Amino acid sequence: MTVLKTSLRNFFAHKGRMALSAVAVLLSVGFVCGTLVFTDTVDTTFDKLFAVTAADVTVQPHGADKDGSSPQDGAAPLTVPASAVRTLAAQPGFKSAFGEASSTSVTLVDPRTDKNIGPTSGAPTIAGNWTVEPTAAVKITSGHAPDAADQAVLDSDTAANAHLRIGDQVKVMTGFGTFTHTITGIATFQTTNPGAALVFLDTATAQHELLGTAGAFTSINAYGDGTRTDDRLKAEALTALGHGYQAQTKAQTAAANKSDVASFLDVMKDAMLGFAGIALLVGVFLIVNTFSMLVAQRTREIGLMRALGASRRQVNRSVMIEALLLGVIGSALGIAGGVGIAVGLMQLMNGMGMHLNTGDLTVKWTTPVTGAAVGVLVTLFAAYLPARRAAKVSPMAALRESSGGSATTRSTVLRSVVGLIVTAAGAAGLVAAAVAKQAGQGSALLGLGVVVTLIGFIIIGPLLAAGVVRVLGTVTLSPFGPVGRMAQRNALRNPRRTGATAAALMIGLALVSCLSVVGSSMVASASDQIDKSVGADFIIQPHTGAFTPDIVKAVKSTPGLGHVTEYKELPTTLTLPDGVRTKQDLTATDPTYATDLRVPTVSGEVENAYAHGGITVGQTFADAHHLATGDTITVAFPGGRSAALRLYAITSAKTAFDQGAMYLGLDTARKYVPARLMPQDVMLFATSANSGDTATAYGALKAAVHDYPQVQVSDQADYKKQLHDQMSQLLNLVYGLLALAIVVAVLGVVNTLALSVVERTREIGLMRAIGLSRRQLRRMIRLESVVIALFGAVIGLGLGMAWGIAAEKLLALKGLGDLSIPWATVGSVFVGAAVVGLLAALAPALRASRMNVLGAIATD
């Protein structure tokens, strides 16, 4: 009980100093709990959606995706006849059956602006026939259902976003043409809107515009009368319909849909938890520093406790109880904050078009338990070494010390030697990764090298501080005269503390530096690859929806173009010379693609594959299956026809574009694939007829596709800018998440300075007594903070650049071999670190300057 009382007294006596450490725990636990609550809420929301909207049995043609479309992109969807719907409805045990004619290869356009009004968040635009099913996801809340060919119903969210009302018109662009409809009804989601845009047509119109055929559906939704289980209904449906069909029960449909959502959420969850882990790691340094300094400042008090009979175990337990209190309070606040973070993420998703209701907020019992466990265990782990150090202090040694002691020379030397060995081992791992010949092996070595060098730098932090801070102080603090020199000496006074404080900042900045080098190198390499490999002047791609024959026709009829190359992807099954069968997508293009994209080869020529009706494969695939030019590969095309094609070229793996693609000519594909199963183009390539004047052809091409808002036309400069913008967006997102770790690191600097000011109270009083002004004192503490922050920036940026350079050497195996150091970013981060150090010192410097001089001198 005495130990508990002592711990509580010490904890609340230093509550201000504990607060910053508690914030570190709060932020980290909050991020963990927020991620878990958000993903659990999305799971709950979609579980409700899928449970409500799935039919008892869903029947599709064999080989169709779960949404009923053909597995190959843009091809005519696989369908079931209307007679199959009647057959199911007449079966015993079935109450009703509805045919669904739907497509996701659709673009919705507002005729008033000729702009795409579909979702921009990556969710699909779905068009289908209007039916009144028991599990309908939407209900008409205004107007009426479509009952004529020129009528349509729009979902309320899309209508509101596009400011469309009943009586307005909307264009529906499909693979079979562009159709204009008048909005006769607005439908409202009965559950969560997953972000999709929905448009409904009458059944005959949907079959004509979406499927290109009458009397057919993409799937059948059947409902039982309650006399049979769903599994039995499924079996009887397949028996009644015969061969050529596949079916799923309600549970299977919901599970299949949920798996797609789960795959996205898992990636998101892993990424966010990864950043939370980084913040926790940084928080460990803050907590270690806090307890180390508190223990050092209470050395005399601990000595008195030991002299009065307190055992080592009791001293250790006292410090650990303080850590437990810190972990419990920080975790409790973090769990509450996590719910707020989850709500914020939900609002962010709502802003992107996905409507998540806070009424579905899901806080499983495992979430607070996980958060509390993480926060408490990490805090106890961080406090263990300071507690152990406190317990080892002997009573007489403690009574002889005026303030905290320092590490012995022997332990410092041993730590430095171990740190140098670990760092050297990590550096060897990075070098091995940089010279690796295989990406898989190199990635493993890179990960090992990153972890080991990080550990090594943390261990040798005090050694680096002694040298780097001295150099930084000489360069940056000399202009400030004696105040600058005192700030430098204060930073050097306890290298272990300075190293630990800077290490927290180092981790975040090392990751920023590494990712900056990788991102900049990827953009530079891709730009160089475009210059070297891309011979086409223009690249035409669809933003969303189908790349329809009308679009291809409009592009090909554009004046001023030299040639237009079509680019399609065919799902096939290959039978290799050794008898192995494997499913692969083949790229079918016009022969001009060989000049549009100059793909390097390790054997043979791509042009020969086009000229002689053969095939090419990528180097990785060829090596894995021991293929060589001249081999024969049997290709099973969509529609059932097969052909034995000769291998004419093996393309290099060291290319940034179309790496591993397998080419064949469009003429060859058309010879074996029925026209109705030939997919639409994935993209088009074009060149200007006048190589000296691409601007005129560019303008004409833009004008030719003006009526197709789903189409994007890019010249090479545009394409480079897209790559740069995409990488910048990704890096900005990562930097935003890493800011959490940097905020925790800044709190560590603030805490270290605050505790250091308390530790040097008598010294500060003496300096004030001999003439140091308040202004000079504030400047000294600010400069000390700046030099510590700059030290963390120097080692962080240096370490991160080493990681980035090693990673770039691995990317060279994928054709991205141009190293680019973003010096502007590096410089900005370095200057930003100085600003961070300056801001972190404001409160401690102000507190120090307000000390009473006589009271400070009298402090023991």
TrEMBL record:
Top-level lineage group: Bacteria
Membrane topology designation: Multi-pass membrane protein
Keywords per UniProt: Cell membrane, Membrane, Transmembrane, Transmembrane helix
Entry's transmembrane regions: 272-296, 323-345, 365-387, 417-436, 448-477, 498-523, 733-758, 783-806, 821-842
Localization annotation: Cell membrane
Domain ABC3 transporter permease C-terminal: 275-395, 737-853
The MacB-like periplasmic core domain, residue ranges: 19-212, 498-696
Claim: Transmembrane is one of the keywords in the record: yes
Family: Belongs to the ABC-4 integral membrane protein family.
Record's protein name: FtsX-like permease family protein
Species for this entry: Streptantibioticus parmotrematis
